[in-house]
Write a structure and sequence with these properties.
Blueprint lengths: L1 E2 L2 E5 L2 E5 L7 E4 L2 E4 L14 E5 L7 E4 L2 E3 L4 E5 L4 E5 L2 E2 L13 E3 L4 E5 L2 E2 L6 E3 L6
Parallel strand pairs: 1-4, 2-5, 3-6, 4-7, 5-8, 6-9, 7-10, 8-11, 9-12, 10-13, 11-14, 12-15
């Protein structure tokens, strides 16, 4: 359980989850930024996202009352089989690096996504499902 944590000026991921146990990872009142632009020396081929949930994760990951911003590729890349939820969160920037059509949240694993009472502040694609992802 993490309360009031933040990660600022992250080049790759602000939060990376490789594995979570059944009770899950709970993050409340977080502030996360991921930056990639010409003024920052980011290694070639890197993309930036505030949240990355790895393919091997099967546990729940929950963000509540948290904010996500910065010139990045996406807010979240979800590849695991667990449930990731965003409740009452602010999504400020995304798709500012490389492919400007990327979604704020990209779900490619076989997990579940819950988004409730969140604000997406840009007129861009909010959620995209690919591969075996369907919920």
């Amino acid at each position: 359980n993490f309360l009031g944590i933040g990660a600022d000026l992250c080049y790759n991921y602000s939060v990376r989850v490789d594995a979570a146990q059944a009770p899950g990872i709970l993050i409340t009142n977080g502030e996360f930024t991921a930056f990639t632009e010409d003024s920052f020396p980011v290694p070639a081929g890197w993309t930036s996202s505030q949240v990355y949930v790895a393919e091997g994760n099967s546990g729940p990951v929950k963000f509540v009352d948290s904010s996500f911003w910065g010139p990045d590729s996406s807010i979240a890349v979800l590849e695991g089989t667990g449930t990731t939820s965003f409740v009452s969160c602010e999504f400020v920037n995304w798709a500012d690096q490389g492919d400007s059509s990327r979604a704020a949240i990209e779900v490619s694993g076989n997990g579940a996504l819950i988004v409730s009472a969140c604000s997406f502040q840009e007129d861009k694609t909010q959620v995209a499902f690919s591969g075996t992802a369907s919920r």
